[in-house]
Each structure stands twice: as structure tokens, then as C-alpha cells.
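U., I forgot to send this yesterday:
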Amino acid sequence: MPNINEKMMALGKCRSVIRDIFEYGNARAKEIGRENVFDFSLGNPSVPAPNEVDEAIAELNEGFGSVALHGYTSAVGDEGVRAAVAENINERFAAGVDKNDIYMTCGAAASLTITLNALVNDGDEVVAIAPYFPEYRVFAEAAGARFVSVPADTEAFQIDFDSFEAALSSNTKAVIINTPNNPTGAVLSEYTIRRLCSVLRDKSEEYGSPIYLISDEPYRELVYDENIVPPYLINEYDRTIVCYSFSKSLSLPGERIGYIVVSGRMDKSEHDDIYAAVCGAGRALGFVCAPSMMQRVVSRCLGKTADVAIYKKNRDLLYDALTEYGFECVHPDGAFYLFMKSPEEDATSFCEKAKKHELLLVPSDSFGCVGYVRISYCVSTEMIERSLPAFKALAQEYFG
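Result:
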């Protein structure tokens, strides 16, 4: 065996369960036809990007000049783009963000890995509240942290604060939250957010070392009720770092574009050191100069979203049908996932039975919350309609 990094080799040989099911779906589609496979595995937006994206690309290609358009920007991102992002955040949330708080990135994965590598020293702990995106563990452990999972509140899918406080220690460097949540679609309430921030302030003072709040926000704009607006975390907790991606809001997952915001509400020297560490982590990981054309495209589309009404229609269609069939589901307020309780204890076994009906669902074990499955409804409405007889037949196997 070659003398290589065994941890990285293991990650390469063992794909995420989500990707594994997605590849199974591709293989199955070749066998029986794509139209006969009901693939709910991947959070890949099915709604087209808003027209403004194509218009921005056309305008830039016509008027910007090829050399400038496709050339390097500053390592941290184009100054004008960062200024536009900061202005948009301030217009929406009055957060006092400055362009020098912004670091443009290659999507949410880069935002999170850069941030974790900027903060973490070996032996530090990174806490996430289940259920969570499985790659949080991968990113945190690759940065040298010990990953700590807080058990899920399966009643309301908010935060079990007794479990949360028990998970914190003097080694806690950061807490990751994600609202609207992948995989549940739940949105943390204002009460939950404010209590969380209060606990972090108290624990930082108790331990004599800061705990940072990492807010992973790719689904911020994907909410279905105007009355539900996730609080902007920088306004709630000074030691917040926002990791944002345009992948979901603008339906641009393959373009890999996002940003980091280091809150300017921290002490100035602390802020400057963390921003410098973000720059250093981006350099060390090779994430300098996010795609230059896409930086300029998104700066022209700030405040725009893909058609969220389509996702809402899909949610209502699927939720209403599955609950009618007897399945127990979390009602999602945002994102584009339905979290359904497995009718048997072993969710992986349930997902294998679902495959017999060509239904591809993701078991929840890797999300830190056993006994559920994730259903990604960012698919065509027509596919959901065609899948309902299969779901009904599956339900009849369990409920009669």
C-alpha cells in the first residue's frame, strides 16, 4: 500500500450516502429509463435560475471584455462585488457589514472549510445540532477538530438546550447552525436563536475563551411564509461568522459561488485577526479568487431568487399525500427537504424497501438523527405526481 494519507483515502473510497444513492439512481435510470426512477436523493435545485442571471452573463460577455471578465480578482474577491454584497446585507438586515468583512468563496463548502480552518486548533471542539448536513463532521475533523453532535429535538426540531449545554466545554471553539435546516426544512424561531446566543455568551464568559457561531445559510431565502424570516445572526451574536452560498437561492449549485462574512461587531483586533485567518486558510486550501465572472454575475442579482413558489407547491403536494398515506413528516417551513419518520426502526432497511418501488430516499443516520429519511423535493412537480402511487404502495406494505 502506498504511504499516503489514509484518512483522505478512506473518504475517497467511501462516498457520502447522498452521493451514493444519487449514483445508484443514475445507474438505475440507464437500466429502466430516467422516467421510471423517482430520485429524491440530491439537493440539486430543479427550478431554473432567475432571468437576471442569464441577462447578467450576456451583459458581461458583451460589454466587460474577455481578459478582465475571466482574469483574476483580488484573492479575497473583487472589491466592487464585496461592496455590493455588504450593501445588500445592510439594506435587508441593518447589520453594519463592511466590504472588508467579506471574503468571496467557491460556494458553501469552501465557506465552511475556510472558516473552520481559520478558527480551529488541534483538540478544539466543533458542535452541531442534529440533524445536520453530514459534511459538517468531515469538514470539522479535516480541520483538526473533534466533532460533537447534539441530539435532535424530535418534537419541534428546534434545540434541546439541556443537551446543547451539556455538549459545550472549555474546548468548544465553534457551534454550527443551519436555518432553514437541511434535512428537516425547519426554521429556528427567534426565541431559539436568542436563547442560543445567550447560552454562548454565558459559556464564553464562564470558560474565559470565545465560542464562535458559524451560521450556514444556503437556504436563507427559501422560506414559504412571509412571516417566517430567520434572524440575521450577526445582529444577535457578535462572534458570528456567516457562510453563504448562491447555489440554492439563485439555482447555481454548479457555479460554486458564495461568501463569508466576519462580523464587524467583534472587538476590532479580534475581527482583524479572524479575517486574516480566513485569508490565510483560503490561501492554504487553494480557495483564493472565487470564480471571477460568477462574482460579477451574483453582484448584479442580489436580492433575486429562483421561483420559490414551485418548491412550495412541491412541498404541499408531497407532504399532504404522504401524511394522508399514513407517514409521519416534519412540516418544512423552508429549504426543499421533507424529513419523514421511518415506519421501521432501521431507516436504511426502509430505504432499501423503497428502492423496490424505484423510490430513492436518504436514510438519516449520517445526519445524526436515526429513524428518519430525507426526501429532496427540488424535483419536477410532474415527477412527484408520478411517484405518488409508488409511495402509496410502500405505505400499504407498512400500514395496510
